[in-house]
Specification:
It is a single chain. The protein is about 60% helix and about 10% strand. By secondary structure, it is mainly alpha-helical. The chain has a two-stranded antiparallel ribbon. The chain is globular. The relative contact order is 0.13.
């Protein structure tokens, strides 16, 4: 899926929603930011597998899509904090049933493996 679909008004609603969370890290970042504002360094420590470049790119795309707010404090060194916007919280709430479905699926898979 291309980034352009996130702003394409001629696609179905599910495609438009998936376009803004497409990628390996955005749903995890959305989930982490549900608990409150985080600095990029905090997010990076909690997701050791993500590079600084990819983290920055994902957060900037999420900011562009209106999911996160980036606040830069005028101190030395600069302090940046990311938090969910109302739109980001709304998306997170909308994804909760999908998350529940995913957990049920994983439980079924674990039961099937245990039974075989």
């Amino acid at each position: 899926m291309t980034r352009g679909r996130a702003h394409d008004t001629e696609v179905c609603g599910v495609t438009a929603a998936v376009a803004v969370i497409d990628g390996k890290w955005k749903t995890l970042l959305l989930w982490m930011l549900e608990s409150g504002p985080h600095r990029p360094g905090e997010l990076r420590r909690r997701i050791p597998a993500i590079s600084e470049k990819v983290l920055t790119q994902a957060l900037r795309e999420m900011e562009s899509d209106g999911l996160v707010h980036r606040e830069v404090h005028d101190v030395v060194p600069p302090k940046t904090v990311y938090s969910l916007t109302d739109t980001g919280r709304e998306l997170s709430d909308a994804l909760a049933p999908l998350s529940d479905w995913g957990h049920r699926r994983l439980d079924r898979l674990a039961e099937e493996r245990a039974a075989s």
